Amino acid sequence: MKKVHHQVKTYKKDELIASSGDKCNSLKIIVKGAAVGEMMDFQGKSLRIEELHAPDTIASAFLFGEDNTLPVDVIAVEETKILYIPRQDLMNLFCNENTVLKNYLDIISNRAQKLTKKIKLLGLQSIRGKFANYLLEQVRREGKTEFTLKNSQSELANIFGISRPSLGRVIREMHNEGIIEADGRNIKIVDKKALSGLLK
Fold first, then answer.
1. What does DSSP say about strands 186-189 and 146-148: parallel, antiparallel, or unpaired?
2. Same domain assignment for residues 133 and 51
């Protein structure tokens, strides 16, 4: 990194790192801390698009292509340090280091896949459908029907774009209906067929 021009900036909790509409002229890497990407819906409600933690990159897919404007606001959720590498310096690094280029392409591909799943999730109208989709994705990842949720109910509500009480009510309903067993963050899928049926 000594040969690559770069800059490190520190942001306080709740400080705006980048605004929607900003030009993306450099690669931004979180080297410490965490941030969230948020956008406003048509009703003026803030919708959390994704959570970012070190060593995630910020809007790496918007560094190249026709539209280089950032689509979301990026806000620090704790003290966060960001490493900035200008586009041209990154291009030079790609030419000299194939491993760096491959890692960058992997990051973009993984992010695109993640956002595709997010779009699918937002396309589900019911809260039950959103939560069912989330649980089934966890089953696929964990390879088992009993696991601990990585996100709190408040975090999940933000991800789904709904209120926390509404999500809590749905979880209780699904528990009482025998579809799942829920104890805090501990979840057991009891009726996977019924859970899958909530996606329709």
1. antiparallel
2. no
CA dist 84 and 63 (Å) reads 12
User: 184 phi and psi, to 5 degrees?
Assistant: 65, -125
Tens of pLDDT, residues 85-94: 999 999 999 9
81-104 exposure pattern, b = at least 16 Cβ within 10 A, e = fewer = ebbbbbeebbeebeeeeeeeeeeb
Give the CATH number, domain containing residue 99: 2.60.120.10
Residues 16 and 96 placed together within one structural domain of the fold: yes
- DSSP letter for each residue of 80-94: EEEEEEEHHHHHHHH
Question: What is the extent of the structural domain holding 140?
Answer: 127-197
pTM over 0.70: no
* 175 class by beta-carbon count within 10 Å (0-12 exposed, 13-18 middle, 19+ buried): middle
Three-class secondary structure of residue 37 per DSSP: strand
